[in-house]
Amino acid sequence: MKYEDIIHRCFRCGYCKFTGDYSDFNCPSYRKFSFETYAPGGRMWLIHAWLNDEIKNSDRFQEILFSCATCANCVEHCVFTFSDDLVNIFIAAKEEMVNKGIIPPEVRDYLKSINISGNPYKEPADERGKWADGTAIQTYDGQDYLLYIGCVGSYDERAKKIARAVGNILIKAGLSIGILGNREQCDGNEVRALGETGLFQHLAEQNIALFKELGVKKIITLDPHSFNSFKKDYPDLGGEFEIYHYTQILAPLIQAKKMPLKEYKARVTFHDPCYLGRHNEEYDAPRKILKAIPAIELIEMDQNRENAFCCGGGGGNFFTDILGGGEDSPSRIRVGQSLDTGARIIAVACPQCAKMLDDAIKVEELEDKLEVLDIAEIVTRALA
Amino acid sequence: MSNVILSLAEIVGENYVSSGEEELYFYARDPGLMPAHKPDWVVVPKTAEEVQKIVRLAKKEKIPLVPMGAGMALTGLIIPLKGGIVVDMKRMNKILEVNEKARYVIVEGGTSHGSLKAYLEKNYPRLRHSIPDSPATATIAANMMIHGQGRLTQQYGFNSDMVTGLEVVLPSGEICKIGSCSISPEWFSKGAPLPDLSGLFLGWFGATGIITKVALRLYPRKKMRDVEIFVTDKEDLVPDIIYELTHTEMAEDIVIFSQPLPLIFKDNHHITIFITGDTDEELEFKRKMLWDALDGFIKSKDGGFMWVQPAMKPILLEMPQRSVSRFADVKKGGGFEYSGPIILVERYPECTRKIVELSSKYDLGYSGMARIIGRGHCMMFGFAFTFNRADPDMMERVRKALHEVSNYALTAGGVFWKPTVDEQRMAIERMDPNTRNLLKMIKKNVDPNGIMNPGNWEVN
Question: What is the C-alpha separation between A251 and A291, in angstroms, rounded?
Answer without folding.
Answer: 10
